[in-house]
Design brief:
- By secondary structure, the protein is mostly helical.
- It has one domain.
- Helix content is 90%, strand content 0%.
- The protein is built from 2 helices and no strands.
- Helix 1 packs antiparallel against helix 2.
- It is elongated, with a radius of gyration of 16 Å.
């Protein structure tokens, strides 16, 4: 039983770190597009928002594994 708890801790923390990095990447990408692209296509922001949603899902999944 102890091995399962250790694995959940390792995977949970890993998913939380990856989720934070994913959200940060989406934020930086959004700022760069708004600042550097004169007339962006709407589907570019769809990719940014999907990246943000994936980051949130990873955070929730990691927190669920840590409970």
């Amino acid at each position: 039983m102890k091995e399962v708890d250790t694995m959940n801790l390792i995977f949970g923390l890993g998913l939380i770190v990856i989720g934070i990095l994913q959200i940060n990447t989406a934020r930086v990408m959004n700022n760069n597009i708004k600042k550097n692209v004169k007339n962006p296509q709407p589907y570019v922001f769809v990719g940014v928002y999907i990246s943000l949603i994936i980051g949130i899902i990873l955070l929730v999944w990691g927190a669920w594994l840590l409970k």
